[in-house]
Prior knowledge:
The protein is of the alpha+beta class. The protein has two domains: 6-122, 2-Layer Sandwich (D-amino Acid Aminotransferase, Chain A, domain 1); 130-290, D-amino Acid Aminotransferase, subunit A, domain 2 (D-amino Acid Aminotransferase, Chain A, domain 2). The protein has helices at residues 26-30, 52-65, 74-87, 130-135, 161-174, 218-229, 241-245, 277-290; strands at residues 6-9, 12-15, 33-35, 38-43, 46-50, 93-101, 115-122, 137-141, 179-183, 189-191, 196-201, 204-207, 234-236, 249-254, 258-265, 268-269, 301-303. The chain is globular and about 55 Å long. The two termini are 26 Å apart. Ligand PPE binds next to helix 6 and strand 14.
Amino acid sequence: xxxxxxxxxxxxxxxxxxxxxxxxxxxxxxxxxxxxxxxxxxxxxxxxxxxxxxxxxxxxxxxxxxxxxxxxxxxxxxxxxxxxxxxxxxxxxxxxxxxxxxxxxxxxxxxxxxxxxxxxxxxxxxxxxxxxxxxxxxxxxxxxxxxxxxxxxxxxxxxxxxxxxxxxxxxxxxxxxxxxxxxxxxxxxxxxxxxxxxxxxxxxxxxxxxxxxxxxxxxxxxxxxxxxxxxxxxxxxxxxxxxxxxxxxxxxxxxxxxxxxxxxxxxxxxxxxxxxxxxxxxxxxxxxxxxxxxxxxxxxxxxxx
Length: 305
Ligand code: PPE
């Protein structure tokens, strides 16, 4: 990864190489951290963070599930995000705020541990490759299922959930694919290990509902709104494996993944085996919006200066 100067840790700026934690930090042992992934884009009016408010709100919701009282207000965290971008003189970056049970007691009860908060920013290019954005990627339906609501709350963006994502990702990569797709315990398509999923069938855009056990992605929400604004019908319904195989188009959404077309799933070519026309329309609109080229969606941009 590309280093920058400073990382915000518990309200102070620390040099990148000094942003360290104790090896007995609770979250390192038990996955008791909640985090966000946010992007800042260089718009025509200067750097702007995309849907900062919604991301910080989601982090506080995740923290609530884990009974973690973040010792800052949401406004303080939003300001710290923007200040950290300014401090590092970045125009475009990925932003990773994290709150976690820190170091003091060992054992499963974290109620006496401090809640530490950090915000890191760094340049992070395309998540699944520049080529992937244009031509689509090859995916494998994972043998690992998405964390179930009875096991770990999928809506909370907790570090623990990502052990599941890592298993799915490793399996896909080791089998020669670029990304995994995980089903829920009912065998229905849920999402990617770090992305939400959509298919297009007969002009309709379809994505799994919350009950499929997904993380409610902020990019997912943006794409649903943008598609509807463009007059495209969007439905949230269960998607089976075969729905995916015979879809006209498929794509992932996510802060890191942005809008990435899917061109193949388990050796079945999706549609024409490249980025489909509706995917392309939504993807290009998405990039216009995040880069400040569409005034209608200025409300989603939080200018850094
Ligand atoms: N589902 C999962 C499981 C997920 O991790 C993400 C984001 C999404 C859906 C999309 O959510 P949103 O970013 O709000 O549209 N994954 C983050 C972490 C990726 C990583 O590899 O780290 C991200 O995209 O920042």
